[in-house]
Amino acid sequence: MYRLISYNLHSGVGRDGVQDYHRIGHMLAEKNADFVLLQEMDTRASERNTQSDIDALCQPGGYTFVPAATQVTSHGWFGNALLSRHTVIRDDVVTLSVTDREPRNLQRVWVETPHHSLLLHNTHLGLSRKERRQQVKLIQSALEDGIANADLPAMLAGDLNEWWYLSNLFARLKPVMHQLDTGLSFPSHFPVFKLDRLWVTHHCQILNCGLIKDRVSSHFSDHLPVFADFAIKDKR
Fold it and tell me: What is the pTM of this model?
């Protein structure tokens, strides 16, 4: 069994106003995640060191860190990142940026476990619905390229920023992936929106999925983490 967690960590700033990657790193290790897909990873603060931020998240759980920056400054960067306890084979980034909007991307990471290969997709979509429509089309193309041609178990997760309850925005992903019912994740103190979502291909057997919500960690960000426990189906 494997566990994947997707988490918009809000630059590490909790609802208590405290910026602390260390407590998030310990929470992820305690939740025993094999893979963590992060959005709003932020190392731009001049009073902190980029490598120290990464170590705070990775060292408690023994993770390898794979960055996918959308904005870079002289001191650090902002964007997506993936943590893995398993071997990272390669990674790339698909640009999802729309003119005159905040830069966005789709991070793709190929990992190898002792028994399986897996392709993970991590993203954070824009705030405009028109923008998100364009980005979902690009994601569909990337999924079809990365999955259909390789017949590889794959997952997609992140902060999709879709507020509409009856949205059909993700209908074009259905032929490629199945969306899990992980629940309402935003805002973390009283969730009413399903911003954080998770999809899997038919290769994945879902054993459990939902939200990570407890008194200890629910105030670490303005989003709640979503998770999936899964196995990879044997080929017949």
Answer: 0.94
Using CB atoms within 10 Å of the CB of residue 149, give its burial: 0 to 12 exposed, 13 to 18 middle, 19+ buried.
exposed
Closest residue by Cα to residue 120 from 160, 79, 89: 89
Q: 49: which 2 tokens?
A: 């060191």
Specify the residue for token string 């999936």.
Answer: 228
User: What is the Cα–Cα distance from 133 to 21, expressed in whole angstroms?
Assistant: 32
- Partners of 80 in beta bridges: 68
DSSP summary character for residue 203: T
- Sequential pLDDT tens for the chain (236 residues): 999 999 999 999 999 999 999 999 999 999 999 999 999 999 998 888 889 899 999 999 999 999 999 999 988 999 999 999 999 999 999 999 988 899 999 999 999 999 889 999 999 999 999 999 999 999 999 998 866 567 889 999 999 999 877 788 999 999 999 999 999 999 999 999 999 999 999 999 999 999 999 887 889 999 999 999 999 987 65
Give the CA-trace dihedral at 211, 216, 221, 222, to 10 degrees: 70
Cβ-contact 41, 80 below 8 angstroms? yes
C-alpha span between 85 and 70 (Å, rounded): 24
Distance of CA 102 to the CA centre of its chain: 18
